[in-house]
Amino acid sequence: MTEREWEESEDPHAMLMRVESESNRKLRLFACACCHRIWSAIRDERCRAAVQGAEQFADGLISQVVFAELSAAADEAYGEAFNSTRPGTEIVALYAAYFTAAENIEGWHISDILRATADVSRTVSREVQADLFREIFGNPFRETKFDKRWRTSDVMLLADDIYTDRAFDRMPILADALQDAGCDSADVLNHLRDPSATHVRGCWALDLALGNE
Q: What is the pTM of this model?
């Protein structure tokens, strides 16, 4: 895949092949973002808790032991659903959540999550999934330089609040704060101010501001 193909792609499986060896944290957050797109279909609280736990685990906020317990509960929930007469879409949704909480998430987990979430909801199209890859991984063909001096106390406080509270409507305010701090990266500023962007945890520009990998 070339840089131009990445920027224009609507083939999430091809994009996965380009980034599956990248940050395990970002792969996990991508899976979580896919599950949040079908949240209403994930009707078992054990699976919802597992997805929420996966986000926390990706950011080092819960231990391996706690996450393993959440994963085991999601496994149990999916198994019960699989052997029941529940609607197929509900079972597939639980399957996606269960895989999101896999102990060691890998490319093949993501591939199955892509298929499952697309099967559950027509709103989770290949185009939407491709946009999520670009939202989380940015442009893997080109490194965006970020000066750590731009991480002023104001920037860090605002970025942390946005990430913690999912207050993505405040991204343009973060762009203003970064610019005030001396940020001259058009890629970063434009992405944070993009009115058409659907931001999620793991957003490449927000991660740069926070110093996440």
A: 0.94
